[in-house]
Write a structure and sequence with these properties.
By secondary structure, this protein is mostly helical. It contains 13 helices and 2 strands; from the N terminus they run H-H-H-E-E-H-H-H-H-H-H-H-H-H-H. The protein folds into 2 domains: about 70 residues, Winged helix-like DNA-binding domain superfamily/Winged helix DNA-binding domain (Arc Repressor Mutant, subunit A); about 160 residues, GntR ligand-binding domain-like (Four Helix Bundle (Hemerythrin (Met), subunit A)). It has a two-stranded antiparallel ribbon with strand order 1-2.
């Protein structure tokens, strides 16, 4: 049985995206290993049920994600994503094909958030414009409205963090946030229940926004550290409990 076994024929709707998704999953899950050659275009078009032009567009996207290397002559070699890829693949890495969350990836995201968010707040306090400050104050105030359920709080929290990142003026942080936000939104039901105490800490969001508006970089950073630590502690405890349970089975 070839390495292209298990690929499924696709409908015409979003066919390029679906082809990218299937091939990307096989690369990230290790079905195609670093250094391996991809199956031929003829084999892939047959396995996926797509045209050669569609497949070539999908392969071009995989190359742009730095998951494959297209060599002179047209052969395609699998790259080690750990060495070459960027944060845009994090949402795909977060769960396996059966929907189970990868706790190592969750831990990595949580650790990145713990570093990124406080420093973004520090920069925001130094660089925010009047328009930034107004949007951030509005976003924090929206977190304090009465009778919000977790879905609403989660949506408003995402907006708050987006405004904080935008206020930081750091493009790299913004791009990282985009990838982390996509990963979060793809698994929102699981995450929002875990970090409910963080989402419900309305006064903390207001404290961060006020420190940013006041231009107090150290206070903005400290208050953000304190807020994300609420959710991070819960997530890390859940990971530890899950890992212990798996080790005992």
């Amino acid at each position: 049985m070839g390495t292209h076994a298990g690929l499924k024929a696709l409908s015409r709707q979003s066919v390029v995206e679906a082809a990218v998704e299937q091939l990307q999953l096989k690369i990230l899950r290790g079905d195609f290993r670093p250094g391996d050659k991809l199956p031929t275009e003829a084999e892939l078009t047959e396995a996926l049920g797509v045209s050669r032009s569609t497949l070539r567009e999908a392969l071009s996207r995989l190359a742009s994600l730095r998951l494959i290397h297209v060599q002179h002559g047209g052969s395609k070699t699998i790259l080690d994503y750990r060495e070459h890829a960027g944060l845009e693949i994090v949402p795909t890495l977060l769960s396996d094909t059966s929907g189970h969350v990868d706790v190592d990836v969750v831990r990595s995201i949580t650790e990145l958030r713990a570093i990124l968010a406080p420093d973004a707040a520090r920069l925001a306090a130094r660089r925010r414009t009047e328009a930034n400050a107004e949007r951030l104050i509005h976003a924090a105030a929206a977190m304090a409205e009465a009778a919000l359920d977790l879905d609403e709080l989660s949506e408003r929290a995402n907006y708050f963090w987006k405004q904080l990142i935008l206020s930081s003026g750091n493009l790299a942080y913004r791009l990282a946030f985009n990838s982390l936000q996509t990963a979060y939104l793809d698994h929102a039901p699981q995450f929002r229940k875990l970090i409910a105490p963080e989402l419900q800490a309305a006064s903390a969001y207001q404290g961060i926004s006020q420190a940013v508006v006041d231009g107090d970089a150290d206070l903005a950073k400290r208050r953000t550290q304190e807020l994300v630590a609420v959710g991070d502690t819960i997530i890390m405890s859940a990971i530890e409990a899950y890992t212990s349970q798996q080790g005992g089975e």
